Amino acid sequence: MATLQVVSNLLCSSHSSSTVSQSRKGVQAALQFPKLNNIRKPYDLSLPSLTTKASEPMSNITQQIMKTFINSPGHGASPTLSPTLSPTTLAGELYMIMEAIAERIEMHQNIGEQRNNWNTLLLNSINAITIAAATMTGLGSTGVVGSSSSLLALQVTSTLLYTAATGMLVVMNTIQPSQLAEEQRNATRLFKQLHEQIKTKLSLSRNPITQRDVNQAMKKVLALDKAYPLPLLGGVMIEKFPKNVEPANWWPEQSPKEQTQVGNNGKAGNNGWSSKLEKEMRGIVELLRTRDTEEFIRLSNMMLKINKTLAIAGPLLTGIGALGAAFAGSPSNGSLAVLVGVTAGAMATVVNTMEHGGQIGMIFEMYRASAGSFQLLEETIESTLEEPQVEKREHGKLFEMKVALQLGRSLSDLRNFSGSLSPSRPVTKEFASKLF
Question: Quick one: where's region Disordered (predicted)?
Answer without folding.
Answer: 254-274
